Amino acid sequence: MICLLPSRGLLPGTQLCSVPRQRLHKLASLQNVRMLRPKKVQSLLYPFSQMEPYLDRSVDRSQFQHFHPSVEDMMKAETLFLSSPSHKIDYRISAERLDHVPVLKPPEVCFIGRSNVGKSSLIRALFSLTPEVEVRVSKTPGHTKKMNFFQVGRAFTIVDMPGYGHRSPKDFVDMVEPYLFTRENLVRTFLLVDGSVGLQQADLIAMEMCEEIRRPYVMVLTKIDKPGNGTLLRNLMSLQDTVRRNTTSCFPQPLLISSLNFCGIYLLRCFIAHVTGSISLTDTSLS
Ligand SMILES: Nc1nc2c(ncn2[C@@H]2O[C@H](COP(=O)(O)OP(=O)(O)OP(=O)(O)O)[C@@H](O)[C@H]2O)c(=O)[nH]1
Ligand SMILES: [Mg+2]
């Protein structure tokens, strides 16, 4: 691999490399996914479909399908995650204090959650069609220490946040909380919960904070490849119950994601494209 390092304007955490096309993960693009077995396609595009057979018949399934985009809508959204000369996807800047945060016009979405929950991995999977934008991930909790801004053309900005639970709450309270309260162009916060362990006390505190901020946020269950179906279903139902009982600003449908096997990544790309106003959906996508 030829690396063009060091590159001007790049901070630690991001490298600009010339990556041969074949290094793209085979599941990065819907084009490839659509060639797989229909059952596999279904579970990658609509991860909730894996859970359905295990649900009690009395459970109302519509609450898990408020956002149910067509494959065509997902294809439209995917084009936004492809970098081109007229639509550059790139790391923009890192900020370790609120006054370092750049003023940017495009709508913004950010990812918060406990350290190690998989925030950076998820953003890396979203950008898997543009592997030259490197998002660093680590087994060690507390790896991401700054807010990292990634610009997706003029369409939107994605922000990777330091986690809470490790070296926090100080970092989080000093930097992330004021950002969430004051950022004018922030259109959605994604609050990640580890799907293999379920809701923890720290997650409940973060949900309370999001409720206090009163801006729209969405729960995301990560690492869904790790637990067995029983554990995952239990964690999903408990999260769903908490959302229903205790929240008013939270989107009613938790999104299910595995950054390892790309399950749910296409749906999340479409959700981001939708909430940032970058695509218009066909009528059937939202209920
Ligand atoms: N099995 C599995 N492991 C994952 C997944 N996503 C992330 N991981 C692993 O979880 C660990 C933490 O991932 P990160 O993406 O760095 O987590 P983070 O939330 O950004 O962590 P901080 O930056 O420390 O807050 C890494 O070892 C990842 O490989 C997933 O979908 N499935
Ligand atoms: Mg991180």
TrEMBL record:
A GO molecular-function descriptor: metal ion binding
InterPro entries: EngB_GTPase, G_ENGB_dom, GTP-bd, GTP-bd_ribosome_bio_YsxC, P-loop_NTPase
CDD domains in alphabetical order: YihA_EngB
GO cellular component: mitochondrion
Keyword DNA damage: no
Record keywords, A-Z: GTP-binding, Magnesium, Metal-binding, Nucleotide-binding
Required co-factors: Mg(2+)
Signal peptide residues on this chain, from the entry's feature table: none
Keyword Methyltransferase (UniProt): no
Gene3D superfamilies: P-loop containing nucleotide triphosphate hydrolases (3.40.50.300)
A Pfam family recorded for this sequence: MMR_HSR1
Span of domain EngB-type G: 105-278
NCBIfam families: GTPase_YsxC
PANTHER family attached to this UniProt entry: GTP-BINDING PROTEIN 8
Recorded family membership: Belongs to the TRAFAC class TrmE-Era-EngA-EngB-Septin-like GTPase superfamily. EngB GTPase family.
Protein name, per record: GTP-binding protein 8
